[in-house]
Amino acid sequence: MLALTREISDNLPQCQLTHLDRLPIDVARARRQHAIYEQALRDLGCQLVQLPADPACPDGVFIEDTAVVLDEIAIVTRPGAPSRQSETEAVAAALAQYRPVARLSGPATLDGGDVLQLGRTLFVGASRRSNAAGIVQLGELVAPHGYHVQAVEMGACLHLKTAVTQVAPDRLLLNPNWVDPAIFGWARWLAVAEDEPMAANALWLEGTVVYPRAYEKTARILQDAGLRLRRVEADELAKAEGGVSCCSLILR
Ligand code: CIR
């Protein structure tokens, strides 16, 4: 496995914010937490490819939003926040070493954080970042490789993967107030603790769930279900509305 990450820009405090109030961000602390996250990925079997930060890309560390990586192809997105559209160049160049690269083009917008891959289905959140043209274009690009795209209505959260992520071969972790579990058909699911609405974003890697320290109650729910967790401090990047899945692109 390969994990693409991107270092944190000095301008992270100018990040996009949608649902959170702007709080002071300690960039040095965010970098320390990010380094520990990267080490967790290494420990879980990933070879890291670290892209440098760019001062013009305050949100560049949230690399998940810039591409959808499948075994057969990588689709470079056109992020929904205009300030984030220049993030894709460096990512496209890096991905081209490992996959054929296709690109979304305007008027399409789509953030990778809206795309949940379950087998050959890509569930795509119809969020404020991912528009109908983005969902249609993604579908056209992946169809020749045997993937099907399904749009998902979602509640008032940033991305689909804020509301739901995969945590085991047959198990999702989700916030049922933001997404209807029935949509995902085959999968069993666990609900986040009621007072931890942001706790559904996890990164599942080869049998281990990389999971934020902040969500104690939901962590216990995952452990009681027999899942193995690797806990990481992620609260500084959480002030920029980022979770653990959004800080890497995993190439299997
Ligand atoms: C943004 O609003 O775009 C960033 N501040 C946070 C992006 C988080 N990305 C993700 O959850 N996939």
Overall description:
The chain has 252 residues and is α/β, with parallel strands linked by helices. It is built from six helices and 15 strands. Strand 3 and strand 4 form a beta hairpin. The model has no long low-confidence stretch (mean pLDDT 97). The strands form five sheets. It has a three-stranded mixed sheet, sandwiched between helices. Bound molecules: citrulline (CIR).
Sum this structure up briefly.
The chain is an alpha/beta fold and 252 residues long. Helices cover 21% and strands 25% of the residues.
What's the topology here?
Layout: E1 2-6, H1 27-43, E2 47-51, E3 67-69, E4 74-76, H2 88-95, E5 101-103, E6 115-118, E7 121-125, H3 132-142, E8 148-152, H4 160-163, E9 164-168, E10 171-174, E11 188-191, E12 203-205, E13 208-212, H5 216-224, E14 228-232, H6 235-238, E15 249-251
Parallel strand pairs: 1-2, 4-5, 7-8, 10-11, 13-14
Antiparallel strand pairs: 1-15, 3-4, 6-7, 9-10, 12-13
Sum up the structure in keywords.
single chain, 252 residues, alpha/beta, three-stranded mixed sheet, 21% helix, 25% strand, binds citrulline
DSSP strand tally: 15
Low-confidence stretches: none
Provide the structure class.
alpha/beta
Number of helical segments?
6
So what's the overall shape?
Answer: globular
Please indicate the percent range of residues in DSSP E strands (runs of 2 or more).
15-25%
Q: Report helical residue fraction.
A: 10-25%
State the end-to-end distance: 5 Å
**Bound small-molecule species:** citrulline
Query: How would a crystallographer describe the biggest sheet?
Result: 3 strands, mixed
Query: How are helices and strands ordered from N to C?
Result: EHEEEHEEEHEHEEEEEHEHE
Mean pLDDT: 97
Supply Rg.
17 Å
Query: Major sheet: order of its strands?
Result: 2-1-15
